Amino acid sequence: MKYKFSTAHCPSFELALFDSLPKKPYCTDELGVTYIRQKKTAISKRYLQVNPPKMVNYLVFDIDREGGVLAWECADLPAPFWTSKNPVNAHAHIAYRLKVPVCTSNLAHLDPMRYLAAIQSAMVERLKADRCYAGLLTKNPLHEHWKNTVWTDHQYTLDELADYLDLRGHPKKGPEIYGLGRNCELFDNTRKWAYKAIREFWQPEYKANWNNAVYSHIEALNGQFITPLPVSEIKSISKSIANWTFKHFTPSKFRESQAKKGAKGGKAGSLEDKVKAGLIGGTASKGGGRPDKKALLPQVLEMKAKGCTNRNISEMLGISSGSVSNWLRSLKS
């Protein structure tokens, strides 16, 4: 422990906190009514948002009992950056500063988020902290209403915090999941669903419909949590998954993948997948024969009804655009 004193006598603490705040933090003097203000105004409020959107700079824990300000010492955990104690009931917030902030809304950075979620979950258990604490607003350690104490200026790596903990069984699962575990749960569930679900949206200009479908899926899952994530978090997770799958799960890449599986003698998937991959009924069929009109015509008509051009249909089903035109023309004659 480097030092212990009131934040009111620590200019370096105030500067470090101010620099790390969001540009326009949420803030309030009374819980239940929240405002968005410039940093210079927000720091004058009792409650303050200290973590920027989509990032975790600070791990904050809510201890709803007397003596909460020293819960970290009783739990044999390292010294926090600061603590803020309610002078009326002695409840407290305990905050740890991370050396490297962790992103909570990017599909490409799931491993650090899972690691941090496990650490947070284990620390909540050790501290006997409030599992329903949303984490958006914190007792402002610069406000004179609270009894604020700086304990150390150390910035912790995830490995350093993990050394104090047993991470087995963390983060928790099920409807009572809390903290960053909710983000991980939504990412894991939705991305697995999205890899297959996106195939149903493959048609011209489908991005907007796909974005809406991903958001609706995540919103429904989020509603199952006892303490759901805020809408801003849902939008960020939804956007990340929708954009990633839109970029990496295209019809052409899907056909290539299925063709490689077929070439290795593996299963190419369902009949519908094989048709989409062009492995049967089209130019990519193993026999090299003519496309099977009887098998593919229902697919052609369905895609045409969705607004696909003949070229789109031919590319999706692996048949020539001439065949598509001839089949459609024959229906009119």
What does this protein look like?
There is one protein chain. The protein has 333 residues and is an alpha+beta fold. It has three domains: 5-162; 180-248, Endonuclease III, domain 1 (Orthogonal Bundle); 271-332, Orthogonal Bundle (Arc Repressor Mutant, subunit A), CATH 1.10.10. Helix content is 44%, strand content 12%. The chain contains 13 helices and nine strands. The strands form two sheets. A five-stranded antiparallel β-sheet has the order 1-9-6-7-5, covered by helices on one side. The protein has a four-stranded antiparallel β-sheet with strand order 3-2-4-8, with no helix packed on it. Strand 2 and strand 3 (35-36) form a beta hairpin. Helix 7 (207-222) crosses helix 8 (231-248), helix 9 crosses helix 10 (271-277) and helix 12 (310-317) packs across helix 13. Residues 274-288 have low confidence and may be disordered.
